[in-house]
Design a protein that fits this description.
The complex is a heterodimer of chains A (118) and B (107). By secondary structure, chain A is an all-beta fold. Chain A has strands spanning 3-7, 10-12, 18-25, 34-39, 45-51, 58-60, 68-73, 78-83, 92-98, 108-109, 113-117. In chain A, strands 2, 4, 5, 6, 9, 10 and 11 form a seven-stranded mixed beta sheet that branches. In chain A, strands 1-3-8-7 form a four-stranded antiparallel beta sheet, with no helix packed on it. Chain A starts with a strand and ends with a strand. Helix content of chain B is 0%, strand content 50%. Chain B has no helices and eleven strands. Chain B is mainly beta. In chain B, a hairpin with a 6-residue loop joins β9 and β10. The chains are: A mainly beta (118), B mainly beta (107). Chains A and B meet through β5 of A and β4 and β10 of B.
């Protein structure tokens, strides 16, 4: 059974940095692309970034490009999101999500970790 | 970027009603569309992918249709467990984009 557990959220000051982690289990982590999706309080879903199964390909939403960096450690089955120059509108629950390999929709999600920028 | 527009944003319905939610893409996404259900405080759940393929364990009262730029999610007979917010998502091109959501409320 796929299990994704995010950590690293919290309250951070404007302009500072934060690193999120997502520990994966129950599937072949090094076979699937992994994503970060966020949801601001009371708002809809916003895709943030993706990293390919081998870490070679990465894409970002325009809203985070140049400030956020997605990475992964396949040996530790862990996904990361390094967030810098944080803004108030980055306040959200951040979910990690697994895609289907060739198809980039999300069949498994973590519970999310809340990032509050103030 | 491909913009996804859902309508309505809120829908009031009764148990047993047939409910239809529309998702419109700003350019053709062929059939690269998924639907999710999210309940308050919960994680989104995959309902449908490839426009019309039901996710694992999803009841058959849910169905999806469309192609190109116009898509629909239909619930044939609304059940108490279906009151939630529904999102469409295109995965034709990066950046991936979601619709704004449709909240299905009890009438």
């Amino acid at each position: 059974q796929v299990h994704l557990v995010e950590s690293g959220g919290g309250v951070v000051q404007l302009g500072r940095s934060l690193r999120l982690s997502c520990a994966a289990s129950g599937f072949s982590f090094n076979t699937y692309g992994m994503h970060w999706v966020r949801q601001a309080p009371g708002k809809g879903l916003e895709w943030v970034a993706v990293i390919s199964y081998n870490g070679r390909n990465k894409y970002y939403a325009d809203s985070v490009k140049g400030r956020f960096t997605i990475s992964r450690d396949n040996s530790k089955k862990t996904l990361f999101l390094q967030m810098s120059s944080l803004r108030a509108d980055d306040t959200a629950v951040y979910f990690c999500a697994k895609d289907l390999g060739a198809d980039h929709y999300f069949d498994s999600w973590g519970q999310g970790t809340l990032v509050t920028v103030s | 970027d491909i913009q996804m527009t859902q309508s309505p944003s809120t829908l009031s319905a009764s148990v047993g009603d047939r409910v239809t939610i529309t998702c419109r893409a700003s350019q053709s996404i062929t059939n690269w569309l998924a639907w999710y259900q999210q309940k308050p405080g919960k994680v989104p759940k995959l309902l449908i992918y490839w426009t019309s393929t039901l996710g694992s364990g999803v009841p058959s009262r849910f169905s999806g249709s469309g192609s190109g730029t116009e898509f629909t999610l239909t619930i044939s007979s609304l059940q108490p467990d279906d009151f939630a917010t529904y999102y469409c998502q295109q995965y034709n091109l990066y950046p991936l984009t979601f619709g704004g959501g449709t909240k299905v409320e009890i009438k």
